């Protein structure tokens, strides 16, 4: 017999065999949100009771051992794992749960079971004793679950409708919030007055907009109904103002090219004005082709005519870059058409618009008849009637048929590149003079700009003179006795012992004079400015300036005081960079010749390998083959010659402006004036800033 706990009054316990042979039937019903465990015992015992509930998965084993030890085996525990994890109402954590049902005998064991359930934080639920009550509760729970599902679905549908309606105006709300955050961000930068009733803001404003600013303050005070009107006062300051350069849609792209190098200082010469012409022109020198330039011009013209189209403003990044630089592309294409006419190059072919100036029949006279078996006809311009005059525009188209075409074009383009480069750099040095005049540093003109110009012109300006002089003086008849410009330029520095013919009489004396001027300009460039500032610092007066001016004192050597060693090292470094840069920068302009040659040769290769092959096929299959050949030629022309070669020429033109041109006069150490504007919401007033 199984002994009962003390104090229990119950019917006599059945034999152990009868207890072990009890017939049990279990029915487990599990729902997603609520769980009900119904177990129907058909026991021979009459006084059994039940406790049901939920327990954490990790506590099941310890819970079962505690029940067995405390209740001494007078309990029957059954577990079942829930299909879905549930959220713990105390911790909010989603964990696995087990539903349990405990069957026990006696009230004392029932109290112990309930205390153990409380100790293990079980969620206990009432469990009916009869099958009818259990069935009724099950049906009620199913009805509640179905009602909850219905309510949840209707709530989700309603929320979805509300969110869809709110999404229609969410963009405008986001813009409004960003504008408010931007305004408060600006207000936080203001300071209070002594009464803590007004905000004081110190801002930079262009002089031309002071009237508009004052009128806007008055209008804002009037419309807001403020008791204290807003007013504006100009404050004198010694701080350097930021740089404001007003642009439009045409000049904005060129100004961005300059700003990428550095924002100009206040009142400094802005190179963007000259870049509008020089940049597309230098690009066109490297990209000179009438056909390619015309295609680029049409593409840019299409963007300009459709610039108000909303899809272009919202296009992808690459297309947006083309759109923002549409006016740069327009001028680059237009200038490329011009240089293409000068080179007489249209898709690697020449165009005979005015008729060639060379006459072939004059070479077939009795005295100048070509050899019988010669496959090459040599046109000698010294023969009367062969060369009848220069081509009206550009290079004569007959050079496209000549075997020495590259030799002629290389000589022409190389000299042209040197001339353009020296003129471009000299113009940059001259622009530096205007900076010195504006900032009232006239001593820089005499001690820096003039020596720089003498150094540049006495060497490289003289080189241009020799090139132009040889073009003008020597004709076709005297071309064989014309001296080499390269040899004459080298002899200028080597002082050869033997006399040379030279380009003109007295050439040796002129060259020696130029070298003397160059040699004298170098020490002035190195030491002139430092020694003058030292002289001025010691109390001297020169060039209309004196040490008595405090503002000029700060302007010359800063608030930290005069430091002769620092000034001397700065000027020496600048002078060495300029003198060596004149040589390297002049050689750098030869990229104009190199890229022009590469572009012409690539264009010629495409024509020879594609179109020329298609044109040589007979008429039977020629038309069928020519169509795909032309299509392939167009695709390769666009991707290789227009995009890749165009990008290469674009980058080289930027380098020539930044390194060779702008460093002669442009410092680019200023601060850009960025006024408050709602257009900057996406970049300046982001979530992190505001």
UniProtKB/TrEMBL annotation:
Claim: Transport is one of the keywords in the record: yes
InterPro entries attached to this UniProt entry: V-ATPase_116kDa_su, V-type_ATPase_116kDa_su_euka
Which BP terms in the Gene Ontology apply to this protein? vacuolar acidification
The record's annotation in Pfam families points to: V_ATPase_I
Parts of the chain that traverse the membrane = 281-305, 326-343, 416-434, 446-469, 513-536, 621-644
Q: Which UniProt keywords apply?
A: Hydrogen ion transport, Ion transport, Membrane, Transmembrane, Transmembrane helix, Transport
Q: Does the keyword Transmembrane helix apply?
A: yes
GO MF terms held by the record: ATPase binding; proton-transporting ATPase activity, rotational mechanism
Membrane topology per the entry is: Multi-pass membrane protein
* Entry's localization field: Membrane
A GO-annotated cellular component: plasma membrane
Domain of life from the UniProt record? Eukaryota
Could you list the residue ranges forming a coiled coil in this record? none
| Listed PANTHER family | V-TYPE PROTON ATPASE 116 KDA SUBUNIT A 2, VACUOLAR PROTON ATPASES
Q: Which family does it belong to?
A: Belongs to the V-ATPase 116 kDa subunit family.
Cited function: Essential component of the vacuolar proton pump (V-ATPase), a multimeric enzyme that catalyzes the translocation of protons across the membranes. Required for assembly and activity of the V-ATPase.
What name goes with this protein?
A: V-type proton ATPase subunit a
């Amino acid at each position: 017999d199984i002994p009962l706990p003390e104090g229990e009054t119950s019917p006599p316990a059945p034999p152990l065999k009868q207890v072990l042979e009890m017939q049990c039937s279990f029915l487990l019903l599990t729902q997603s949100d609520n769980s009900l465990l119904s177990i129907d015992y058909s026991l021979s015992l009459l006084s059994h009771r039940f406790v049901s509930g939920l327990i954490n998965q990790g506590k099941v084993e310890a819970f079962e051992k505690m029940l067995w030890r405390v209740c001494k085996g007078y309990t029957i525990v059954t577990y079942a794992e829930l299909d879905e994890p549930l959220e713990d109402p105390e911790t909010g954590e989603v964990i696995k749960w087990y539903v349990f049902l405990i069957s026990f005998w006696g009230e004392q064991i029932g109290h112990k079971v309930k205390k153990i359930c409380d100790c293990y934080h079980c969620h206990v639920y009432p469990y009916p004793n009869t099958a009818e009550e259990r069935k009724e509760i099950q049906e009620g729970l199913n009805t509640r679950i179905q009602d909850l599902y219905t309510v949840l679905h209707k709530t989700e549908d309603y929320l979805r409708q509300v969110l869809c309606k709110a999404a229609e105006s969410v963009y405008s709300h986001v813009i409004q919030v960003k504008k408010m955050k931007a305004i408060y961000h600006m207000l936080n930068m203001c300071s209070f007055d002594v009464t803590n009733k007004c905000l004081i803001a110190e801002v930079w404003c262009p002089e031309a907009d002071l009237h508009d600013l004052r009128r806007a303050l008055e209008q804002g005070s009037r419309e807001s109904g403020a008791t204290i009107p807003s007013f504006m006062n100009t404050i004198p300051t010694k701080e350097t103002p930021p740089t404001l350069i007003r642009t439009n849609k045409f000049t904005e792209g060129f100004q961005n090219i300059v700003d990428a190098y550095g924002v100009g200082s206040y009142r400094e010469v802005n190179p963007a004005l000259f870049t509008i012409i020089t940049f597309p022109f230098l690009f066109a020198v490297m990209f000179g082709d009438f056909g390619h330039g015309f295609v680029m011009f049409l593409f840019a013209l299409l963007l300009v005519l459709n610039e108000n189209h909303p899809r272009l403003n919202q296009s992808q990044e690459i297309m947006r870059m083309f759109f923002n630089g549409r006016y740069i592309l327009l001028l680059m294409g237009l200038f490329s058409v011009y240089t293409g006419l000068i080179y007489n190059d249209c898709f690697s072919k020449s165009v005979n618009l005015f008729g060639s100036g060379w006459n072939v029949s004059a070479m077939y006279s009795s005295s100048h008849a070509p050899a019988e078996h010669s496959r090459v006809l040599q046109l000698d311009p010294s023969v009367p009637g062969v060369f009848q005059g220069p081509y009206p525009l550009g290079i004569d188209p007959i050079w496209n048929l000549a075997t020495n075409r590259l030799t002629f074009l290389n000589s022409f383009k190389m000299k042209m590149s040197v001339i353009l480069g020296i003129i471009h750099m000299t113009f940059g040095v001259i622009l530096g003079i205007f900076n010195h005049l504006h900032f009232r540093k006239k001593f820089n003109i005499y001690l820096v700009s003039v020596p720089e110009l003498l150094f540049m012109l006495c060497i490289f300006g003289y080189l241009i003179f020799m090139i132009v002089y040889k073009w003008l003086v020597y004709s076709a008849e005297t071309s064989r006795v014309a001296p080499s410009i390269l040899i004459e330029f080298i002899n200028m520095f080597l002082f050869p012992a033997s006399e040379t013919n030279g380009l003109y009489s007295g050439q040796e004396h002129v060259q020696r004079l130029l070298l003397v001027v160059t040699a004298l300009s170098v020490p002035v460039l190195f030491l002139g400015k430092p020694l003058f500032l030292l002289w001025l610092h010691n109390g001297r007066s020169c060039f209309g300036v004196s040490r008595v001016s405090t503002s000029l004192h700060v302007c010359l050597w800063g608030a930290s005081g005069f430091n002769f060693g620092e000034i001397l090292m700065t000027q020496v470094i600048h002078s060495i960079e300029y003198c060596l840069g004149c040589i390297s920068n002049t050689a750098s302009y030869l990229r104009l010749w190199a890229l022009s040659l590469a572009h012409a040769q690539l264009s010629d290769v495409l024509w020879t390998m594609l179109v020329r092959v298609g044109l040589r096929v007979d008429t039977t299959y020629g038309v069928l083959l020519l169509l795909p050949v032309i299509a392939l030629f167009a695709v390769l022309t666009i991707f290789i010659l227009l995009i890749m070669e165009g990008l290469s020429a674009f980058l080289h033109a930027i380098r020539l402006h930044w390194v060779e041109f702008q460093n002669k006069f442009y410092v680019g150490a200023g601060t850009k004036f960025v006024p408050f504007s709602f257009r900057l919401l996406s970049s300046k007033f982001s979530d992190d800033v505001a």
